[in-house]
Amino acid sequence: MKKIMKHILALAIVFATLSSNATEAVTFTNKEDGKTLLMFENVSQGDQLLVKDAFGIILYKESIEKSGQYNKSFDLTSLPDGSYIFELDKKHQIRTYPFKVDLSVVTFNKAKLMVINKPVVSAKNNMVYVTSYNQNPTDYKIEIFYNTNGSYFEKIHTETVKDAINFGKKFKLLEDKKEDYKVVITYEGRTFTSIVNF
Q1: How far, in Å, are 21, 118, 198 from residue 42 at the CA level?
Q2: In whole angstroms, how far apart are CA 60 and each of 88, 128, 190?
Q3: pLDDT digits over 7-64, tens only?
Q4: In whole angstroms, what is the distance from residue 23 CA to residue 71 CA?
Q5: Contacts of 187 (CB under 8 A, 6+ apart)
Q6: How far is CA 18 from the centre of its chain?
Q7: DSSP 8-state code for residue 110
Q8: Which of 184, 30, 18 lies closest to 95 in space, CA to CA?
Q9: How far apart are CA 164 and CA 117, in angstroms?
Q10: Residue 29 φ then ψ, to 5°
Q11: What are the helix (H) ranges across 62-115?
Q12: Can you list the positions of beta strands (E) in 54-189?
């Protein structure tokens, strides 16, 4: 019973952290010179900032070098007319900020901000724990692979969790197999991969 309570408490802490990050402040300001000033109040070193087009093609990518406040000017008016997103890829979540370019006018749609919380994968005593929380119901595909010879992973389990907002799953692994395992979780059109070992 104590172990179950510890896992529930850990899950609650993770969800509280993710919820607090959901209110992170961002500012988009179109300046007189036509450039757009992008400012985040709280980024961490190693976060990735990307600009993608409507097809998901990366047009710009930057690794954040310093934790704290981030601000930078972008000339978005030179982009062809169409829909784009700024994407901030953080440790525990991905935040997307859509914008449009129309006749060199840049318009941001803050109401369509999307937050995708990344799954949390942990392992202990031949058990793998997977937890996830998101704002909208979605289908989660979970695949577990076993490292058979150092370079090849063999799939040993697959399942789909349907229409879940949050869930927690645990998987018992082979006790006589102490090599690496790969856990692949797919949802919201994205794939997250974790390597666990014992």
Answers
A1: 9, 18, 34
A2: 12, 36, 19
A3: 433 333 333 333 334 445 677 777 767 788 889 988 999 999 999 999 999 999 999 9
A4: 18
A5: 132, 134, 138, 139, 140, 141
A6: 11
A7: G
A8: 18
A9: 13
A10: -130, 120
A11: none
A12: 58-63, 68-74, 82-89, 93-102, 105-108, 114-117, 120-124, 127-147, 153-172, 181-187
